[in-house]
Structures are given as C-alpha cells and as structure tokens.
C-alpha cells in the first residue's frame, strides 16, 4: 500500500475531516512510498520511534503526533532528534488525535467501554468526545477502582467515598477533566454517579465533592492505549498491512 493510500484510508475510517483539532491529522512526516508494516502507539516519543525502526516499520501511526497549536515550531533539541530519526529511516509518521478519541468503534472511549463491559447510552461534550452509559450491575466506588486497576494496569486516583454506589457513569479519555461541567449538566438529566478521565486538575475534586459525584483520574496514557491497539488490529484484519501496537510505558 502507498503512503497516500493509507492516509486516505485512515482519513475516511476515522472521519478526520469532521474534527477541529489542536494538531494536523493525517500524514505528518513523509517517508518511503511503499508501506507493508505499520506500528501504532500512543505518542511519537523517541522511544516509540526507535522501537518502530527496530521492528522494520514503514509507518508509525500515533494518537499524539507533532506540530501542536501554540507549540514552539523550531526543530531543535528533542524535536529535531525525533524528526531526524524518522527521516533517516524513511519512516512515515501519521497522527490522529481527536478522531482516535471519538470513533464509535475504534476510538479510545468506545474501546475503553468495551474493555470494561460498560453499556454506551450516549455522547456529550464538544464534538461529542465524551461517552456515558451504565455498568452491567451497580457497584461501589472501591470496586470500580479495582476493576479499572486490573484493566489499565495502574490504580486510578478516586475522589469520593469508597462505598459510594455507582451505576451510571460518564468517561472521556486523556486530558478531559474540564468536561466535568458538561457531566454535571448531563447528571441532572440521567443520574450519572461518576465521571472518569485521564487527568485531574486542582479544582476537579472540589467540583466533584460539592456536586456529589465520584471522579476517577485514570491516567492520560493508560486511557488512550485502547484506540491505537484497536487500530492496529483493524489494519491487520482488514488490509494487507502487518499491524502491531507497541506500548511505551508512561506513568502520566
């Protein structure tokens, strides 16, 4: 498959044209024209780029790529080294940010729900990034935190009473703690008991406590591995490409 064919395929699959994003979605750094092996991952760190080179990849497809709005555009230091490695090895870099959070099947939020066995009931927030739904059966906050620890490989930071009853919840992967105001409005109509995201801000616990909902900060990286994993499996099953997900551990 040619690199432009892969870009067109991914753009259509992830509906990237429908999103207003903080960085360009699609082919960010052009490499060799022919692609046979594609590696997916969360962030285009030096560690992931080096791992893709070692695996003999022709394309690296990530959730967090380069060229963010407001970022220093100068290619110096670690930014220069990352791009130098890509160019030296003729490795294509593709990035899909919000499209890989929001996709109804392959996205981080959809796959998070699938991994946890949650029933999706609807969407919320800007560009419908957030999901909400129900647990298979009600549980206590401590039990939900334990299940998340098992699935994510790390314990969440849970705000709320351990014995708080959880039946309905909202979630949005990554740095979406600011959506808690949207969740409060949604909770008034749906009875949501908890909101889960990747990160937490200083004001988040106050808002959660004062509005009697639980909040769980599950890790930005941990909550955004699901989409890249699903995309690698989809490419492996639906194209002639060899697709593989590589996880570079990140405690944040």
Layout of strands and helices, then pairs:
Elements: H1 3-14, E1 26-29, E2 37-43, H2 46-54, E3 59-64, H3 77-88, E4 92-95, H4 98-102, H5 108-116, E5 119-124, E6 130-140, H6 141-152, E7 157-159, E8 165-172, H7 180-190, E9 194-197, H8 203-210, E10 214-217, H9 220-223, H10 226-238, E11 242-245
Parallel strand pairs: 2-3, 2-11, 3-4, 8-9, 9-10
Antiparallel strand pairs: 1-4, 5-6, 6-8, 7-10
Question: Could you characterize the architecture of this molecule?
Answer:
With 252 residues, the protein is α/β, with parallel strands linked by helices. The protein folds into two domains: 3-100, Udp-n-acetylmuramoylalanyl-d-glutamate--2,6- Diaminopimelate Ligase, Chain: A, domain 1, CATH 3.40.1390.30; 103-223, NIF3 (NGG1p interacting factor 3)-like (Udp-n-acetylmuramoylalanyl-d-glutamate--2,6- Diaminopimelate Ligase, Chain: A, domain 1, 3-Layer(aba) Sandwich). The protein has ten helices and eleven strands. Strands 5-6-8-9-10-7 form a six-stranded mixed β-sheet, sandwiched between helices. Strands 1-4-3-2-11 form a five-stranded mixed β-sheet, with helices on both faces. A hairpin with a 5-residue loop joins strand 5 (119-124) and strand 6 (130-140). Helix 2 (46-54) runs parallel beside helix 3. The model has no long low-confidence stretch (mean pLDDT 97).
